[in-house]
Each structure stands twice: as structure tokens, then as C-alpha cells.
């Protein structure tokens, strides 16, 4: 790739001239012209492939993505398991009730890129607890090769609902893939 860019830069620099000076470049052999044409074509294909690549995918309740579905199911299960431990041992759990919409951005290697409260529960302690749970649960699984070919960052949006009854059992995540 670096070699290709070097040739392109060489071509651009050698063809550049100012109005008051004439720069004559030595004629290229047919072999050199063919090599440059081939590398230009390869560069054009790489650029086209790069531009088509879907770097980021969003997965929410109403989005059907068969490739991301198993990943999101595992993500959801991990959050539920960690939330049981964190919330049941939280001395302020009686004040942790409500629903919040959270968007979690996960990189292809399973590392956490960002967690954002998309819609607050109205309870700062609950929102902070949800952010803490998602952060504690990281890292997540790395993307499969198939999934990695399509996405570098997966944004998962979920509604987390916590009630007093659920604090003794688990956190409910509506729209979870079963």
C-alpha cells in the first residue's frame, strides 16, 4: 500500500510545473507505464472498497441483523449477570428503580469504546449504576470473522428497566433476543 502511494505521489510531483518554468521529465518505458497503471488500478480498487466499508452498525430493538443477533444476545446476558451482582450488593438499591435507554459502542476486539445514556431514567444514581455495570462487564467478546468483515464498531441500544421486584432477581431488558 505504501509503495502504491509513493508511486502516486511521484507521479503527481513529477507532473507538477509552474507557469514560469518548464520541467521535463524523462520518458517512461512501456514497462514502467504498465506498472504505474496497474498500481493506480489497485489503488482505485482499495479506495473504492474502503469507502464502501460499513465501519459502524447500529443494533436496536427494531433492527433485524442476523449477523449481530448472537453477539447482542451474549452481550445482554453478560449485562444481566453482572447487574445481579452489582445491584443486589448496592446499599442504595431501594432508590434504583426506573428505565433508561443506553447505547453501548463496542470495538471489534471486544473493548468498550463508549457508553452513553440516550434517555435518562430521571434518577442519577440509576443512570450511574447502569453505566458502571456496562463498564465493569467489559471487555466483551471479540467479533467473529464474519462480523468483523462488516463492522469495526457495533452500537447496541437497549432499554434497561429496573424495579424493586427485579432487584431480587435480575434486570429486565425489553426487546432482548431470546
The N- and C-terminal alpha carbons lie at a distance of: 44 Å
* Strand order within the widest beta sheet: 1-4-2-3
Helical stretch count? 6
What number is the mean pLDDT?
78
* Radius of gyration over C-alpha positions, nearest whole angstrom: 26 Å
Order of helices and strands: HHEHEEHHEH
Please state roughly what percent of the residues sit in beta strands, choosing from under 5%, 5-15%, 15-25%, 25-35%, 35-45% or over 45%.
15-25%
Q: Please give the largest β-sheet.
A: 4 strands, mixed
Helix content: 40-55%
pLDDT under 50 segments (min length 5)? none
Secondary-structure class: alpha+beta
How many beta-strand runs?
Answer: 4
- Coarse shape: elongated
List the SSEs and their pairings:
Elements: H1 2-14, H2 30-52, E1 56-59, H3 69-88, E2 98-107, E3 112-119, H4 124-137, H5 145-148, E4 153-162, H6 164-167
Parallel strand pairs: 1-4
Antiparallel strand pairs: 2-3, 2-4
Helix pairs in contact: 1-2, 3-4
Question: What are the main properties of this structure?
Answer:
178 residues; four-stranded mixed β-sheet; 6 helices; 44% helix
What does this structure look like?
The chain is α+β, with helices and mostly antiparallel strands. The protein contains 6 helices and 4 strands, in the order H-H-E-H-E-E-H-H-E-H. The radius of gyration is 26 Å and the shape is elongated. It starts with a helix and ends in an 11-residue tail after the last helix.
Amino acid at each position: 500500500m505504501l509503495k502504491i502511494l509513493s508511486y502516486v505521489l511521484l507521479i503527481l510531483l513529477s507532473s507538477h510545473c509552474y507557469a514560469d518554468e518548464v520541467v521535463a521529465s524523462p520518458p517512461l518505458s512501456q514497462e514502467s507505464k504498465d506498472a504505474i497503471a496497474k498500481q493506480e488500478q489497485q489503488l482505485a480498487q482499495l479506495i473504492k472498497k474502503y469507502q464502501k466499508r460499513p465501519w459502524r452498525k447500529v443494533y436496536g430493538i427494531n433492527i433485524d441483523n442476523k449477523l449481530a443477533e448472537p453477539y447482542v444476545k451474549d452481550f445482554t446476558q453478560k449485562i444481566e449477570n453482572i447487574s445481579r451482582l452489582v445491584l443486589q450488593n448496592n446499599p442504595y438499591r431501594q432508590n434504583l428503580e426506573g428505565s433508561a435507554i443506553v447505547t453501548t459502542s463496542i470495538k471489534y476486539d471486544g473493548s468498550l469504546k463508549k457508553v452513553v445514556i440516550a434517555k435518562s431514567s430521571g434518577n442519577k444514581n440509576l443512570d450511574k449504576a447502569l453505566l458502571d455495570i456496562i463498564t465493569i462487564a467489559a471487555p466483551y467478546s471479540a467479533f467473529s470473522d464474519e462480523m468483523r468483515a462488516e463492522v469495526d464498531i457495533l452500537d447496541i441500544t437497549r432499554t434497561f428497566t429496573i424495579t424493586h421486584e427485579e432487584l431480587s432477581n435480575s434486570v429486565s431488558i425489553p426487546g432482548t433476543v431470546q
